[in-house]
Amino acid sequence: MPTKGERASEKKFVKTPGGRVTIHFFKGKAGKHHCALCACELHGVPHGQRTSGVRKLAKTKRRPNVPFGGTLCSNCRETVFVEAAKVKHGLKEIGAVSLKEKGFVEMALNRVE
């Protein structure tokens, strides 16, 4: 018997070697990933495959190999590092950074030397 979560998933009727017909349930396909700050579509992140297919890819093929890759778009990533540099050099207080960016700026401060 399928669980409640499986009822809505994709079904495929498969004929087994014994002659019986069984139902195989599949999880949905991976949707497009979005930026955590501006919600625009992320490039370089695979989608359109089943989640198991994405999970089998190499780590470098699942997301870009840059800081905050797969989480932030390039524009937001640039603004976060600019804000982190301003905080690091004393041009801006950490409290003056917007709340949406504050967590990412704090993580970026560890990378800015």
TrEMBL record:
Pfam families: Ribosomal_L34e (PF01199). Coiled coil: none annotated. GO terms for cellular component: ribonucleoprotein complex; ribosome. Gene3D superfamilies: 6.20.340.10. One of its GO terms (molecular function) is structural constituent of ribosome. Keywords: Ribonucleoprotein, Ribosomal protein. Transmembrane segments: none annotated. The keyword ATP-binding does not apply. GO terms for biological process: translation. HAMAP family: Ribosomal_eL34. Belongs to the eukaryotic ribosomal protein eL34 family. This is Large ribosomal subunit protein eL34. It comes from Candidatus Iainarchaeum sp. The gene is rpl34e.
